Amino acid sequence: MTTEVRVPTLGESVTEATVATWFKKPGDSVAADEMLCELETDKVTVEVPSPAAGTLGEIVAKEGETVGVDALLATITEGAAAAPKKEAPAAKSAQATSAPAKSGGDEVKVMVPSLGESVTEATVSTWFKKEGDSVAQDEMLCELETDKVSIEVPAPASGTLTKIIAGEGTTVDASAQLAVISGGDAPAAAPKAEQEGAHGEAYQTPAAGNGSRDVEDAPSAKKAMAEAGISRDQVQGSGRDGRVMKEDVAKAVSAGSSAPQPAAPAQAPRAPVAAEDAAREERVKMTRLRQTIARRLKDAQNTAAILTTYNEVDMTEVMALRNEYKDLFEKKHGARLGFMSFFTKACCHALKEVPEVNAEIDGTDIVYKNFVHMGIAAGTPQGLVVPVIRDADQKSFADLEKEIAEKGRRARDGKLSMAEMQGGTFTISNGGVYGSLMSSPILNPPQSGILGMHKIQDRPMVINGEIKIRPMMYLALSYDHRIVDGKGAVTFLVRVKEALEDPRRLLMDL
């Protein structure tokens, strides 16, 4: 039986790739999920695993060739690798040596699960098991941390955790192997050195520098180096085992330096710290999520022309309506009636009138969204995340409350997927839950607007010539002044205020 090896999905807007390296040649035996070749796109490097065990037949797409999505790369003849008469004596000997390791069952690879669209790597944050521990199928083995979410990795089978390949703190790509589980309750009998020779070296973090000179660089990288007139020593490789990729050459050219790029950007020196104070300090490495938050917020300030306008809203009518119907609402819909659904509805109505607040800039174009994917910022122990309520403008109060509560709960538990935090067109941030009275929120790129909610506080207000105590909330709209004018921003905030002070307007679409 012949199995086709085809180009996998390369990611959003990516339609072709270059075959960088083949790790196998025709006639080689391959195991299921073993890496066959490496593809290089404009943005990332993609490893192609074997879809089945067998023998690699014809390689259709050679190194250096450009292929499209789903193009045929090679063929695999299933079962051919199992014929003992084709094995060399050395191979038979090796198989006999490893046989005791499988006496309790076959070895099972623990691979990095799907990380989500556009996410290519993760950091191993915590191992819940250690080598030699017995594990049950679906029991949590370790936790990975990406730029936005934490992902728990379950055991694919029951057995004994015999080898941890990626230790805590190791950065792994989307197709890397994390560990090995041997079936049954007994650990594998193969010597540790042999296991490392079989698995550890393939996923070892490359040493600093340019890597081994016998590593084959990507063909596109070789071409780019020749065109740029730079040598291999002037480029620091980021691929497997220090392999130079096309983007590495671009970085070296743009840097305009003959020295290899440093592994990390130079940090500004700290101010001098007294010895007695330094002894009482604690240094903790920033999580990937915190690093991403810091980078994105700074990028937003550097890119967008952020301006904030303010207003205040009398919450009397919303609070009265909520108090009157909250018990009946919860009884019928099984969800609590909060304030977020009112604000979401009010923003959706206002965005229809001022569509530029719901748009984004793409180069010299303005992209208007005829839908509202509402981001609801949520604080978690790991940092701020923004789950997205898709098509919020089409949902009822009950649908909004259920989805906001469910995604907020999963955000705090670190269970959100990447897809659930992508594609937002506008964001609401509620600093009032922490007691904030006034703030200026920062945009969530590439969005052009974000509404900041704040604490509800009783204040004296003049109503029809009389001073009355009213529950008031300050509202803040931060917007990108490149696309939203002051008039549009103020109009948006006034429409939100009007809808909340007279919720009947929401029912009549006014």
Automatic annotation (TrEMBL):
The keyword Transcription regulation does not apply. Residues 82-106, 187-278 are annotated as: Disordered. GO terms for molecular function: dihydrolipoyllysine-residue succinyltransferase activity. Residues 2-77, 107-182 form the Lipoyl-binding domain. Residues 240-250 have a biased composition (Basic and acidic residues). Pathway: Amino-acid degradation; L-lysine degradation via saccharopine pathway; glutaryl-CoA from L-lysine: step 6/6. One of its GO terms (cellular component) is cytosol. Its EC number is 2.3.1.61. Residues 90-103, 252-276 have a biased composition (Low complexity). One of its GO terms (biological process) is L-lysine catabolic process to acetyl-CoA via saccharopine. It catalyses: N(6)-[(R)-dihydrolipoyl]-L-lysyl-[protein] + succinyl-CoA = N(6)-[(R)-S(8)-succinyldihydrolipoyl]-L-lysyl-[protein] + CoA. It is an enzyme of class 2 (transferase). Residues 216-253 form the Peripheral subunit-binding (PSBD) domain. It comes from the Bacteria. InterPro entries: 2-oxoacid_dehydrogenase, 2-oxoacid_DH_actylTfrase, Biotin_lipoyl, CAT-like_dom_sf, E3-bd_dom_sf, PSBD, Single_hybrid_motif, SucB. Keywords: Acyltransferase, Lipoyl, Transferase, Tricarboxylic acid cycle. Its cofactor is (R)-lipoate. Forms a 24-polypeptide structural core with octahedral symmetry. Part of the 2-oxoglutarate dehydrogenase (OGDH) complex composed of E1 (2-oxoglutarate dehydrogenase), E2 (dihydrolipoamide succinyltransferase) and E3 (dihydrolipoamide dehydrogenase); the complex contains multiple copies of the three enzymatic components (E1, E2 and E3). Belongs to the 2-oxoacid dehydrogenase family. E2 component of the 2-oxoglutarate dehydrogenase (OGDH) complex which catalyzes the second step in the conversion of 2-oxoglutarate to succinyl-CoA and CO(2). This is Dihydrolipoyllysine-residue succinyltransferase component of 2-oxoglutarate dehydrogenase complex. It comes from Lutimaribacter saemankumensis.
